[in-house]
Amino acid sequence: MASTPAPIDPRGPRTNQAVMAVALLLGFLADQWLFVPVFGVVLLLGAAFGPKWGPVLRLYSSVIKPRLAPPHELEDPRPPRFAASVGVLFLGSSTIAFLAGAPTLGWTLALIVAALAAAAATTGICVGCEIYVLFVRIRGGVRVVTIEREESKLFDAERPERKGGWATVPADYRTGKPLWLVFTTEFCAVCPRVVEQISTQRPEDSVVVLNVAEHLDLASAYKVRRAPTVVRADAEGMVIVRLSGADAVRAELDALERETVVIG
C-alpha cells in the first residue's frame, strides 16, 4: 500500500498560483502568447517532479518561506498537484490553439486557468483540488480531511471575537444553540448534502451557510481553504473545531452520534 505523502505548506502552491495568474494576465494584456507555454512548463515541472523542480515553488521554499512564521496548518500535497496537472492540460491545449492560429480559443483557455489560479491564491478555494477530492470519494480511496481542535490554529487571532482567550463566532450568527457555520461556494456540489446531513443528524443545532465570495473577511479569518469548511461552536458561540472537507464533517457527526449513544 502506498504511504501517505508528507504534508506541505499551503502557502507554496498559493504563491505559485498568484504568480501564474498575474503572468498570464500580463501576457494577455501585452498579447504575448509565449507566456502560456512558459507557465505550462512551470506547472508541469512542479506537478510531475515535486516542489524542488517547480521554479516558483523552489523560490518560495528557499527565499520566501524562511522569512515567514511557520504555517498555521499543513495540507495534503495531492489535491494541489492534481490541480496543477489540470492547469498543464489547459495551458497545453491553449498553446496548441495558438500554434494552430486560433488565438481567441488560446486566450480563453489561458484566462480560465488565470481566473481559477487567482481565486485559489486570494480565497484559498481551489476548484482543481475539490475535483480531486470528489474523484477520491467516488473511487473509495483514502479520505482527504482536516480536523483541527487546537485552539491556536483555528483562526486568525486578530480577527474573530474572543472570550476568555477562546475564539467565538460573530454575535450576528449566535442563536443560543450549538452552531455550525458552513462555508461554501457556487462550485461546491457536495455542500448542499453536507448541510442536509448536519441538519438531519443535529436537528437541535443551528446551521448557517455562508458563501465564501460574500464573506471573504470571515472566510480568511477562519482560514477557509476549501469547500465545505465548517466551523462548529457551542451554544455560547465559542469555537470547538474547524472541519475541512465533507469527510471531516461526516467524521465529526459520527463521533458526536457515538458520544450521544454512550451517554444515553
Could you characterize the architecture of this molecule?
This protein is α+β, with helices and mostly antiparallel strands and about 260 residues long. The chain folds into two domains: about 10-140, no CATH class; about 145-264, Glutaredoxin, CATH 3.40.30. It is built from nine helices and seven strands, in the order ααααααββββαβαββα. Strands 1-7-6-4-5 form a five-stranded mixed sheet, with helices on one face. It has a two-stranded antiparallel sheet with strand order 2-3. A hairpin with a 2-residue loop joins strand 2 (about 160-165) and strand 3. Helix 1 packs antiparallel against helix 5 (about 105-125). The longest helix has 22 residues, at about 80-100. It is elongated and about 60 Å long. Residues about 150-160 have low confidence and may be disordered.
The helix/strand order is: HHHHHHEEEEHEHEEH
Number of domains: 2
What is the distance, rounded to the nearest whole angstrom, between the alpha carbons of the first and last residues?
39 Å
Strand content: 5-15%
Envelope shape:
elongated
Structural class designation: alpha+beta
Helical content (DSSP H or I, runs of 4+):
40-55%
